[in-house]
C-alpha cells in the first residue's frame, strides 16, 4: 500500500476515531472474527518487514545484512548481531565491548572502532575488523584512525607515530575567528589490507606539513589523498600504492592551519590569519580570499561551486573567482543534489517544531519547492527518505521526490520519538529509535 500525499494543501492529522456504539453480541462476534482475519493479511509497506524490540544501540547494513549493536540484560555482554535483510533471520551474534562503534560495513567486513583519551596524547583509537559473513575477528590494531577505504584497502592515520604529542590546548584569550596554529609533529599514513590488516604502503609526512583525504558518496569511500607543505608544494598520491602521481606549486609560504582540495581549487587556511585563500591547483595562483572564520568552512557544493553556511543561512560562490552567486536565509543543512536541484534542510534548531526541506536552483538560489513538516533521514538515489511526527509517539515514514514534491508514505511506526539513527541499504530503511530496531521496505523508485 502506497499513499500519495497532495502537498498543495497543508497536511493535517486524521480526525480521532468516533466513539463506538454497543453492538449485539452475535454481530460483535462476527466483526471480531472478520477483524482477526483481516489483521492476518500483511499490509504492504505499512508495517516494518521485521523488528528487534529491545536493547538496540546502533545499526548499519550492507550486502543483504543488517548489523545491530545491542546491550545485554543486567550482567550480560554487549553484542553485535547480524540479521538477514530479506526476512530478519539471525545470522550470527558475537560479544563486543560497550565502547565499540561502527566505522563502516561492506560485503566482506564489519569495521568497529573504540576511542579513548590517553593522558598527554589526546584521543586514541583501536580498530577491530570482523568477518561480515560469520562475525569472526579478522584482525585488530591499536592507535590507528580510519580515514576511509579504497578498493580492498583501508587508509588509516597511524596515531602511534604521534604519541607523546599533546593536542593543541584551549586558550580562552585566543580570538576564535583566527586560524589556530597546530602543534608541529610528524604524521604517518598507511594503506592496510582490509581483510588481513597487512601494510600495503606507508607515507610519512614531516612536521609542518599536512595530509588530507577526500571522500566520494557515502560509506567512507575515498577518491583522493594529498599532502601540502609550508612552502606551498602540493603532492597528490595514488590511493592504491601511496606513490606520488602529481606535484603542484601553490604561490604561498607560511604555517599551515588546515587545507582542503576541491576539484581544481585548493582552500588553504594559514595559521594566525582570518579566513582562507583559494588557489587554482593547475597554475598555483591565488584566486580569491574568503573572509569567513574557522567555524564555517568552505566546502564543495557542486561542479565549480563552493559554499559556506552558518546560523544565518547558506552562501554559494563561484569556485574559481569567489563571486557570490546567492545567499539563502536560514537553510544551511546541505543534503546534496537530486538531478540538477540542490537539496537543503533546516537544522533541528532553531526549527525543531517546523522542519522543512527546500529544493533550490543552484544557479540562482531560487527556491523551487518547499516540503514542509518532513525531516530528512537519508538519501536514496535522487530521492530522500524522511519522517514526520504525527503525535508524541507516532510518525509517518515516506520517500520524497524533490523533482515533483511527491511524498509516498510507506510506514506508520507506532513507537517513534527522540532522534532516530537510520541507514538505507538495498531498498530498505533500518532505524533505531530508543532501543528499538525496525526495518522497512522502500517503495520502488518511479520510472524515469
UniProtKB/TrEMBL annotation:
This is Pyrrolo-quinoline quinone repeat domain-containing protein. Gene3D superfamilies: 2.40.10.480, YVTN repeat-like/Quinoprotein amine dehydrogenase. Residues 78-288 form the Pyrrolo-quinoline quinone repeat domain. InterPro entries: PQQ_rpt_dom (IPR002372), Quinoprotein_ADH-like_sf (IPR011047), WD40/YVTN_repeat-like_dom_sf (IPR015943). It comes from Dactylosporangium sucinum. It holds the Pfam family PQQ_2.
